[in-house]
Amino acid sequence: MAKVRGENGARLSRRAVLQGAVIAGVAGIGAPLVLHGIGGARAATPIKLTWNANSICTVAVPVAAQRGHFEKHGLKVELINFGGSTDQLLEAIATGKADAGVGMALRWLKPLEQGFDVKLTAGIHGGCMRLLGSKAAGITDLKSLRGKTVAVSDMAAPDKNFFSILLQQNGIDPIKDVEWRQYPADLLGLAVQKGEAQALAAGDPIAWLTQRKFDLAEVATNLIGEYQHRSCCVLGVRGSLVKQDRATATALTRALLEAGGWVAHHPDEAAGVFSQYSTASVADLAAMLRSHTHHHHPVGTDFKGEIARYADELKLVQVIKPGTNSDKFAERVYADVLS
Q1: Is there a single domain that holds both residue 234 and residue 329?
Q2: 22 lies in a domain?
Q3: Is the same domain home to 80 and 53?
Q4: Mapping DSSP to helix (H, G, I), strand (E, B) and coil, where does residue 300 land?
Q5: How many other C-beta atoms are found inside a 10 Å radius of the C-beta of residue 140?
Q6: CA-to-CA distance for 288 and 283, rounded, in angstroms?
Q7: Exposed (0-12), middle (13-18) or buried (19+): which is 29, by Cβ within 10 Å?
Q8: In this structure, are residues 250 and 338 in contact, taking their beta carbons and an 8 Å threshold?
Q9: Are residues 80 and 143 in the same domain?
Q10: Integer CA distances (angstroms), 196 to 82, 180, 288, in order
C-alpha cells in the first residue's frame, strides 16, 4: 500500500489520505480534484465503474457523481454505461477493463458461481421488479398464472429468476407450469395486449410505465413478504482491486451507500438527477424511487445471509447447482471492505 509522510515525518496510509481529503473544483465526473494530505497534494484515484443507465435502480451512481460523493472519498470515477450481457460485464470487471459495477444479484450470482473474480461489497437497495398481469385474462395473483405465458426481456433476467422463485414457493412449477417467452423490453406490454402472453416480468422504469400504459394488474413485486428486507441491486468490485487496493474499494462502497441514503431521503431530487437518462417524467421517477428501499444497503453478516438465501432459492429453480454450499459460496463472493 502506498504511503505518504506528514509534516512530522509520520507515515500516513492511503486510507488516511482519502479520509483527510479536501475537495477542489466542482462536483461531477471528471471535475478537477486534488486531495491535500498533511505533507502535500495527491491526485484523486481514477476508477472505472460500470452501470446500466436504463435502470432506475442504479440511481445512486449518477447521484454520487453529481453530488460529489465520489470526490468526497477521493475518487475520480469514469462511468461506463454497459449495454452487453452480464457475463461480458463481469468479465470486463474481472479482467481489469473496469474496476467495479452495479447490477442485480439474481443475475450475477450464477456467473459468480462459475468463478468470475468479482467480489460483492454491499447491497445497494431493494425493490424494482414487478410481475404484471392482464386483467382481461384474469391474471391477478400467482395461482392464476398456472398454464399461462409470461413475457420477459431475457431468459436469464433477474425478474424472471425472482418470480420463478416466487412461483415455486407458491406451489407452481416455473419450468413445467408456466411458459416464459422472450420479447424486446419495449414490446412486453404489447405482447400482453395482443394476447401472446398473459403477464410480464420486468424492472423499473419499464415495468412501472408499462403497467400504467396498458392498465395491467400488479400481481407481485420483489418487496413481497420477507423480500421487503432483501436487497436486489449490488456492488461488485474486481477481486484483484480488493486485494491490492482495499482503500479504493472501501471508498467506492462508502460513496455509493451514502448516495443511496440520500436517494431514500430525497426521491424528488434524485429523480431529477436520473431524468436525463429516462423518458419518464420526474414525477413518475420519484414515485418509483419511493416504492423502492434505497435505505436498505446491507453489508457484513446481513449481506452474506442475503446472498446465501438467494443461492438456496436459485437452486429451487435450477439456476445454482444443487451441490453448491450456499454459506461457503456467500463467504467466497463477499468482500468486507468496511470493517
Answers
A1: yes
A2: no
A3: yes
A4: helix
A5: 14
A6: 9
A7: middle
A8: yes
A9: no
A10: 30, 11, 27
Q: Which domain holds residue 190?
A: 129-221
- Asked whether residue 273 is assigned to any structural domain, the reply reads yes
Residue 283 and residue 317 share a domain: yes
265, with CB counted inside 10 A (0-12, 13-18, 19+), is exposed
The predicted model gives 88-95 an average pLDDT of 85
pLDDT per residue over 135-179, tens digit each?
A: 999 999 999 999 999 999 999 999 999 999 999 999 999 999 999
SS3 299: coil
Domain holding 155: CATH number?
Answer: 3.40.190.10
Q: Give the least confident one: 71-80, 82-91, 104-113.
A: 82-91
Q: Which among 179, 198, 221 is the end of a domain?
A: 221
Domain-embedded: residue 93: yes
Three-class SS of 119-183: EEEEEEEECCEEEEECCCCCCCCHHHHCCCEEEECCCCCHHHHHHHHHHHHCCCCCCCCCEEEEC
- Give pTM, 2 decimals: 0.85
Q: Per-residue pLDDT averaged across 240-252, rounded?
A: 97
Burial of 119 (0-12, 13-18, 19+ CB in 10 A): buried
C-alpha separations of 194 from 96, 144, 181, 182 in Å: 45, 19, 14, 15
Question: How many domains are contained in the chain?
Answer: 2
The reply to whether 26 falls in a domain is no
